[in-house]
Amino acid sequence: MLSLRDVNAYYGKSHVLNDVTLSVRAGEIVSLLGRNGVGKTTLLKSIMGLLKQVSGEITFQGKSLRSLKAWKISRLGITYLPQERNVFPELTVAENMRIRVSTRGSKSEDIREVLESFPILSERLNQVANTLSGGERMILSLAAGLAADSDLIILDEPSAGVMPIFVDTMGALLQRKSKGGKAVFIVEQNLRLALTISDKVMIMDNGVIHYVGLPRELEKDRFTINQLLGVGT
Known about the structure:
The chain is α/β, with parallel strands linked by helices. It is 38% helix and 27% strand.
């Protein structure tokens, strides 16, 4: 579904990504872990055409993304949820959902599944978004993105600032999406979430992917967790 080969990215003269190679298959959840500032978000922006200084091969379903603008990449069937959980503050919850899913289309069962997963939104469909709490606005942004009919879902730290109960709900929803054939690529710092829902985990440090393996293998590898993620044993 998604393939990167020898991808390098720069901010001016700063070399941020170094020969990154990875793949995400249909029906698979892949999590990329790493400390702050190691290049994870830069990688996602490189995939989505949001950076200019990028080299290497990036393909989605066999089609090169390198020469495409971000909106064209999205139209191919990719949902990208950045760290900024933006909503339209003057619109209602229902209107925010409608706008987000209209850009890629949606199936009624996708919208229903998301609202059933987050009943707090179902109870507030007619409420204006700027009257929601910060955590509720984050859930709204995530839910609207996950309701869109996309083949690949890319999320940048979706658990950040979200209550633990909603993190678990989101993880279960992503697993159902992957079982339905969607590909999911997550940048995360929440080790528990990644180990729980992923089919494959990777760890990045200083723009280089140093580890690729199964969640159960990483869970037992306390040395790697400590050295690359800074999580004590």
